[in-house]
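Now for today's protein:

——
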Amino acid sequence: MKNLNFKSVFGILFLIGLFIVINKVDDKRILMGITGILVVIFLFNFLVRKKPGFKSYFLSPFNLFSSKITVKKSFDLSKDILVPKFKEVLEAADFKIGYSDEAAGELFAYSNISWKSWGENIYVDVNENGDVVFTSVAIIGVYSWGKNEKNLEKLVETFESSLII
């Protein structure tokens, strides 16, 4: 079993606390306030998920409602080759391209809603020296149930298989 991280423990403790509040508080306005805050956070995440300008929000360590994973890989190829290739790979891996800046080496893609998640954002940053930083962010969810890891594995496998002639 995977180790629990801070956000998973926080989420579990939050749910336990919420359960206690529901059962102990006679004034349901507190419960309605907590529910309202959670609904606003949910709607905000869902509405801005396809906007590349919110990258720093989704990648922030203070965003406790979105699980994320980052992997760095090095390739012996130039940025001029890697960026268009990863754009092609993202489309081949069934992600939708939301933004690309080939000069800066930035790609942003997202996946659709599935029965496992509310969707994920994929950020690919390519450096001049061939280092590529992949980040997969589950839009809503303290724990991604392995979906973020599978997204990155799928992306790297699709990239490596596309290099085979």
Q: What stands out?
A: Residues 28-48 form the longest helix (21 residues). The CA atoms of residues 122 and 136 lie 5 Å apart.
